[in-house]
Automatic annotation (TrEMBL):
Localization in the cell: Mitochondrion
Name of this chain's protein: Enoyl-[acyl-carrier-protein] reductase, mitochondrial
GO biological process, one term: fatty acid biosynthetic process
Keyword Mitochondrion part of the UniProt annotation: yes
Length: 370
């Protein structure tokens, strides 16, 4: 090799090394920038530092998310409803009280964006719902422990995904776990226009179980009755009608579902057949449950309570939950289990959404995060 050729080779080698060094530094810089951007990712969060009147105690703040831990995932929250339980939690009267300050929202869905090194059941792109009642879904981004999230199908309609974790499973478990219902049996329920009530109606229709449904009187009663019958209700009455001429149509019910309490629960319990069961899952009237002495003794009727958070935590197995989720998701995808009517509002419009949730009849307020 002559001196000129050797010199050119040396130049090419040096240039290659410089290019490789530059490429390596660029790659390192990109990785460092990515890590820095993840550490500095900010999240809008609807938080509260004390209990009280929800519009007064909530504040929309911005917080850094930080890097995910080994057993954590970062979730980009997409949508979350405002349920009665959320209002109760903010008021300080709900059984679950997260350490304060806390992010509001016990239900919703989001997309996994990053997973920790020890995460095995979730990956980027998965859709998830909270597995506990204090996840804090009213935020744009959050870090969450893998075991505190449940994976759902990522092709569900937006409204169905956002309202999937609480109401459909509550209706499903109450219909499955307390009485062995068969085609032709009768279920009577109050609060029939609630999200759970509507799920009960639709599931019973699919399983050929009759329903008698009690609602409060209101201006648009006729429209509500038509709406509930369109999704499968057999009978719809006001409480006043049930007390008078319509009670006979609800006789000998195998199962009663109570979310109101007070005189309404008394009315339901008198409709039960021998060894019938009344399941209480709410107390919207804020009055104690009432039950007649005679049927309680001579018909051996039973009163039980149900709370879906407790079922997830201690009663249902992972296999039970997965089977239930699979069945409910399949019904949703085939249009056989529809979500409640929703009013979508941006997270920034939270005051309007919360106020509406405290006053509305039948329309679910849904916060859209992105």
């Amino acid at each position: 090799m002559d001196e000129k050729t050797e010199g050119n080779s040396s130049i090419r080698s040096t240039t290659f090394e410089i290019n490789m060094f530059g490429s390596s530094m660029a790659s390192l810089g990109a990785r460092l920038f990515f890590k820095h951007s993840q550490r500095c990712l900010s999240s809008k969060q609807l938080m509260y530092e004390k209990y009280g009147h929800p519009p007064d105690v909530l504040n929309l703040v911005t917080k850094e998310v930080g890097e995910v831990g080994a057993d954590e995932v970062r979730v980009r929250w997409l949508g979350a409803p405002i349920n009665p339980a959320d209002i109760n939690q903010l008021q300080g009267v709900y059984p679950i009280r997260p350490p304060l300050p806390a992010v509001g929202g016990m239900e919703g869905f989001g997309e996994v964006e990053e997973v920790g090194s020890e995460v095995t059941t979730l990956r980027a792109g998965d859709w998830v719902v909270p597995g506990i009642s204090a996840a804090g879904s009213w935020r744009t981004f959050g870090k969450h422990c893998e075991r505190k999230l449940f994976k759902i199908a990522n092709d569900l309609p937006f409204d169905s995904a956002a309202t999937f974790q609480v109401n459909p499973p509550t209706a499903y478990r109450m219909l499955k776990d307390f009485v062995k219902l068969k085609a032709g049996d009768l279920v009577v329920q109050n609060g029939a226009n609630s999200s759970v009530g509507r799920c009960v109606i639709q599931l019973c229709k699919l399983w050929n179980i009759r329903t008698v449904n009690v609602v409060r009187n209101r201006e648009n009663l006729g429209a509500l009755i038509r709406e509930l019958k369109e999704i499968g209700a057999d009978e719809v009455f006001t409480e006043e009608e049930m007390k008078k001429e319509s009670k006979d149509r609800a006789k000998n019910a195998q199962l009663a579902l109570n979310c109101v309490g007070g005189r309404s629960s008394l009315m339901l319990s008198t409709c039960l057949s021998s060894k019938g069961v009344m399941v209480t899952y709410g107390g919207m009237s804020k009055k104690p449950i009432e039950v007649p002495t005679g049927p309680f003794i001579f018909k051996d009727i039973k009163l039980v309570g149900f709370w879906i958070s407790q079922w997830y935590a201690t009663q249902g197995t992972e296999k039970d939950r997965e089977a239930m989720f699979e069945e409910l998701q399949d019904l949703i995808k085939h249009g056989k289990l529809c979500p409640p009517k929703t009013n979508k509002l941006k997270l920034e419009d939270w005051k309007t959404a919360v106020t509406n949730a405290m006053n509305s009849l039948g329309t679910k307020q849904l916060l859209v995060m992105q």
